[in-house]
Amino acid sequence: MLKGFRDFILQGNVVELATAVIIGGAFTAIVTAFSDKIINPLIAAVGGAEGPALSFQIKPNVPETTIDLGAVITAAINFLIVAAIVYFIIIVPMNKLNELRKRGAPEEEVPPTTEDLLGDIREILRNQTAAAAGPAEGPATDGPIDPNQLPRH
After folding, report:
1. Quick one: pLDDT at residue 139?
2. Of 33, 25, 34, 32, residue with least CA distance to 90
């Protein structure tokens, strides 16, 4: 039971998801400060207003009807920054680690085909027959046996 839980936890997707949530939460404060102190003033400079930049009111003198495009742009930039950080700091190294693990894993042995098994059986029978009969009569064949030359019962 614990082995199954351990395998589940160490699975690549679970580890990546947990790491992304933790790192994303930790970088939120940094990205928010960057947005509030650098990006928002730049957006306000483009908007040219003293209030929220790139915003307008649907009904004049009713602040609840304000649509703030600057806040949407800031949120989109925040998302892109966090996504880029998580991708380049966590996901890319994790993928490299998984690739190295796959390279180091031993290759699985390919099971023998039916033809291989039948060939082995043929060789065993040939050796048993040759040992029981003594010296072989007729030409020896090292290649494949023609089914038309086999005795019929």
Report:
1. 54
2. 25
